[in-house]
C-alpha cells in the first residue's frame, strides 16, 4: 500500500508524542485530518480562524 505525505506527517507527529492538533479544516488539510482520524491517536480540534489554531487554549490536563 502506498503511503501518502499526510500519513507520513501523522505518523511522525505520533512518534513525537503529539496528542492534539488545532487547525482550520479545509481542502488543503483534508488528507492530514483523514490520516489522523484513521490512526486515532491524535485528537484534531477544528477551528474557524488561523489565529485560534496558532494560539490554542491553555493546556488541558487529562
Write up this protein:
The structure is a single chain. With 62 residues, the protein is of the alpha+beta class. The protein has one domain. It is 42% helix and 16% strand. It has helices at residues 5-15, 30-39, 50-54; strands at residues 20-24, 43-47. A two-stranded parallel ribbon has the order 1-2. Helix 1 (5-15) crosses helix 2 (30-39). The longest helix is centred in the first third of the chain and has 11 residues, at 5-15. It is globular. 6% of the residues are buried. The model has no long low-confidence stretch (mean pLDDT 84).
Largest sheet: 2 strands, parallel
Helix vs. strand class: alpha+beta
Determine the mean pLDDT: 84
The overall number of domains is 1
Portion in helices: 40-55%
Spell the H/E element sequence.
HEHEH
Q: What's the total helix number? A: 3
Strand content: 15-25%
In spatial order, strands of the major sheet run 1-2
The beta-strand count equals: 2
How are the SSEs ordered, and which strands pair?
Blueprint: H1 5-15, E1 20-24, H2 30-39, E2 43-47, H3 50-54
Parallel strand pairs: 1-2
Helix pairs in contact: 1-2
Structure characteristics:
3 helices; single chain; 62 residues; alpha+beta; 2 strands
Quick structural overview:
This protein is of the alpha+beta class. It has three helices and two strands.
